[in-house]
Specification:
Inosine-uridine Nucleoside N-ribohydrolase, Chain A, eight-stranded mixed β-sheet, two-stranded antiparallel sheet, 44% helix, globular
Length: 385
């Protein structure tokens, strides 16, 4: 075989490697690997060709390794109090379209009908109107907010722009019953619970008795069915002012206290504090440029209604979602293990304990850049065909 022919073959192998890399790491542009492969090819050295072939075999081996099963996920949100909840729900749908998670249910801890109706619109927009929904009663916030109703009621020529399953929130069941029925139907130790608003629904779940859904109490259901609580709550950076009281704790301190008092000790908790989402901004440029594949997009419209454009917004809730579904990808660091509790001031604090299994997320400057790109790509991903 001539050397030129050998290089033609290796060039084809090189192109295959690039395709494999993109399939393996679809949320990132593998420029570093691309240039490494190109340099190996251009050196035109027999040893380098052999190394390239080995790299090809390694890439094929990776691509053929069995994919992890989708993460079974429940999303509990206070949709409408901030726009990051909407972006977080969009990220979940993007990851479900990639086969990485299965959204089992969405429950709202905001006591306003448009909160859960907006969730219905978003689920329907992404082609999943059948996902169970649950809403809180007698919750701690009932203000409408600036975007949920406007998006749900958007019309063109007298017709609703967005499809939805329910015509009004009165048709949607109570959040605790949805949480109980969803957990009862799942295999043991299989569900990740993502909580990005108040702890209201989870506290009530833990305190719920056995019923016609399941003879197990809520605490027993959580102990048997849940494998991780990923929650956006609290603040843990050294620069935290003494008078700072994080919103998700402050608005329902009794519920947060109940959750951290009753939570089963064997089930890990990973918290994304205020400082994590604050460091990673969802940029206005993404909203303005990445969502124009449709005329009406419920997440983009919600963002535009939330505040006057252009503005960047912290990715608070998105970080808890990303960790819940991709915990091993190096997007975040973790604190030392320990235990959370609500202190006498009604604030969430973390005490280091070597045998603990409760941690909070940390960030490096490099991780901030990486996670920002990943989250913007995922939240703007079009619905699956």
């Amino acid at each position: 075989m001539s050397l030129n022919k050998e290089y033609q073959i290796m060039d084809s192998y090189y192109e295959m490697i690039v395709v494999l890399e993109i399939r393996l790491y679809p949320e990132e542009k593998p420029y570093h690997l691309f240039h490494l492969n190109r340099q190996l090819f251009e050196m035109k050295d027999a040893m380098k060709l052999k190394l390239l072939a080995v790299f090809l075999c390694f890439s094929i081996f990776q691509s053929e390794s069995p994919a992890a099963p989708p993460v079974k996920l429940i999303f509990d949100t206070d949709m409408g109090n901030d726009i990051d909840d909407a972006l977080a729900l969009a990220v979940i749908h993007a990851l479900q379209s990639r086969g990485e998670c299965e959204l089992l249910a969405v429950t709202s801890s905001k006591d306003n009908p448009w909160s859960i109706m907006y969730c219905d619109v978003v689920n329907s927009f992404y082609g999943r109107p059948g996902i169970p929904l649950g809403t809180v009663s007698k919750g701690v916030t009932n203000l409408e907010g600036s975007y949920t109703r406007k998006v749900v009621e958007t019309s063109e020529k007298g017709q609703p722009v967005f499809a939805r399953r329910f015509q009004n929130a009165e048709q949607i069941p109570d959040a605790v019953s949805v949480l109980r029925s969803t957990l009862a139907a799942q295999p043991d130790h299989s569900v990740v619970l993502v909580v990005v608003g108040f702890s209201t629904n989870i506290a009530r779940l833990l305190q719920s008795p056995g019923d016609q859904i399941s003879p197990l109490t809520g605490l027993e259901l959580v102990s048997r069915k849940v494998k991780l609580l990923s929650q956006m709550i609290g603040r843990f950076d050294r620069d935290k002012p003494a008078d700072f009281h994080e919103y998700n704790v402050k608005l329902d301190v009794p519920a947060a206290k109940t959750v951290y008092k009753l939570w089963p000790a064997e089930i890990p908790i990973v918290v994304s504090g205020w400082e994590v989402g604050r460091a990673i901004q969802n940029r206005a440029s993404s909203i303005q440029n990445d969502y124009d594949y449709v005329k009406y997009h419920p997440v983009k419209m919600g963002y535009e209604y939330w505040h006057e454009m252009p503005y960047d917004r912290p990715t608070y809730d998105l970080t808890s979602v990303l960790y819940a579904i991709r915990p091993g990808r190096g997007y975040f660091g973790l604190s030392k293990p320990g235990q959370f509790k609500i202190n006498k001031l009604g604030k969430l604090e973390h005490t280091v304990k070597p045998d603990g299994n409760q941690q909070y997320l940390t960030l490096t400057p490099d991780q901030i850049i990486r996670v920002q790109e990943v989250l913007e790509n995922l939240s703007s991903q079009p619905p699956a065909k």
